[in-house]
Amino acid sequence: MNTAERWIRRYSPELPGAAQLVFFPHAGGSASYYRPFCLALADRFEVSALQYPGRQDRFAEPCVTDLDSLADHVFARLRTMTGRPLAFFGHSMGALLAYETARRFEEELGISPVRLFASGRSAPSRPGETAVDLTGDRLLTEIRALGGTDPQLLDDEAMLELLLQPLRADYQALQTYRFSPGPPLRCPVTALSGASDPRTREDGVAAWREHTQGEFDMRVFPGGHFFLSEHVEDVTALVTERLSGVSQSG
Asked: Which ranges carry the Thioesterase TesA-like domain (predicted)?
């Protein structure tokens, strides 16, 4: 498997002229979380999801514990995908990572994604995650509070360690992230949130408006932090609607 294949998992055949859509997983998450979304969109877009180091088939690779460094790695892998319109969808930590990657596209290449979908995360300029003890039981308590992980996996000691290693790394990346003020993105932003998310306030999600010079809209779904899993059809319909009319000509 070459470097690009390790980082980018493709879930659709080539569709000449179609927009490209890349999903950015949440803290501790993997590309496979987005498989239902990718399959639902594969007849309209060339869809793929990122696979960060330190999880699933990349378990033997060291995790990246700095979000800016992770954004540099992702940018290096995605910067070749500029021949056609390119959209980003990130959930939770993935929303911050997608934002930082979009900044690099604009600053380094002078190219903007056609849209950034920022899900389940307050705007970058707002206070970050509540500090969590990464070495004790509080991280496990946090995972249980957010939901989204099969409780049976959390009760399996062997599986739990496989989950906790990338989670610790990703939470360290989140807790050490510091927003650097700069020009707002030129691309439009769509923010998504769960109405009963215990970690994300609606006003914090609405503050994504401050981070774009383009169009902004926000959609609140029923559910908690992992509302996406409960609304695959509605979320993919929203993505399709927002990317309608986007073609190779952009």
From this structure: 22-243
